[in-house]
């Protein structure tokens, strides 16, 4: 099998249900999810410590789910032969883990600078690319129907990465650095 097919040499690519320009919003959206997946893999290379073993396993699970998200977006609505792959239970898992990681880190009141340990810094990069993927999906949704769970998943994933980065720093003994000109922006939910 050749890795090159020459079918995209004129700026078109195949998706499920037809061919589109390579700069089509659909291609931009699932291509950006692919970037998130790559940065997730990169972040995993910094998780060789036993302290982050559970996080590394979760990231691998997320990599599979990112392929599911991309696959769902690579289908022209109504042309899929099988049910969409991105489901609410994937989102619920992220929410559970966000809550757990948030509990591991010190209380948060102000914006923080992305960084700390190598693992946390890499996770923050994945987080920002996840936010960009989310913006691409919003643009795509304005043009066509999509699996709405993909948009929710990507929104939650960026929150997950934020919480995971903070937990990684906490576990590895690196304090988050607050943005020095930040007002208090995070308060407890039960405060008025």
TrEMBL record:
The lineage of its organism: Bacteria, Bacillati, Bacillota, Bacilli, Bacillales. Its EC number is 2.5.1.17. It holds the Pfam family Cob_adeno_trans. One of its GO terms (molecular function) is ATP binding. This is Corrinoid adenosyltransferase. Pathway: Cofactor biosynthesis; adenosylcobalamin biosynthesis; adenosylcobalamin from cob(II)yrinate a,c-diamide: step 2/7. It is an enzyme of class 2 (transferase). Homotrimer. NCBIfam families: PduO_Nterm. GO terms for biological process: cobalamin biosynthetic process. The keyword Transport does not apply. It comes from the Bacteria. Keywords: ATP-binding, Cobalamin biosynthesis, Nucleotide-binding, Transferase. Residues 3-167 form the Cobalamin adenosyltransferase-like domain. Belongs to the Cob(I)alamin adenosyltransferase family. It catalyses: 2 cob(II)yrinate a,c diamide + reduced [electron-transfer flavoprotein] + 2 ATP = 2 adenosylcob(III)yrinate a,c-diamide + 2 triphosphate + oxidized [electron-transfer flavoprotein] + 3 H(+); 2 cob(II)alamin + reduced [electron-transfer flavoprotein] + 2 ATP = 2 adenosylcob(III)alamin + 2 triphosphate + oxidized [electron-transfer flavoprotein] + 3 H(+).
């Amino acid at each position: 099998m050749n890795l090159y097919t020459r079918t995209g040499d004129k700026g078109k690519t195949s998706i499920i249900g037809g061919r589109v320009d390579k700069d089509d919003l659909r291609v931009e959206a699932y291509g950006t999810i692919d970037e998130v997946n790559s940065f997730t893999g990169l972040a995993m290379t910094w998780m060789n410590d036993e302290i982050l073993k559970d996080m590394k396993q979760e990231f691998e699970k997320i990599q599979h789910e990112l392929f599911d998200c991309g696959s769902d977006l690579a289908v022209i609505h109504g042309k899929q032969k099988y049910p969409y792959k991105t489901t609410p239970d994937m989102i619920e898992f992220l929410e559970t883990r966000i809550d757990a990681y948030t509990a591991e880190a010190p209380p948060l009141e102000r914006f923080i600078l992305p960084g700390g340990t190598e693992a946390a810094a890499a996770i923050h990069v994945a987080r920002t690319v996840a936010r960009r993927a989310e913006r691409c999906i919003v643009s795509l949704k304005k043009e066509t129907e999509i699996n709405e769970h993909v948009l929710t998943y990507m929104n939650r994933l960026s929150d997950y990465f934020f919480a995971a980065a903070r937990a990684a720093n906490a576990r590895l003994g690196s304090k988050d650095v607050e943005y020095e000109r930040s007002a208090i922006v995070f308060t407890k939910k039960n405060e008025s």
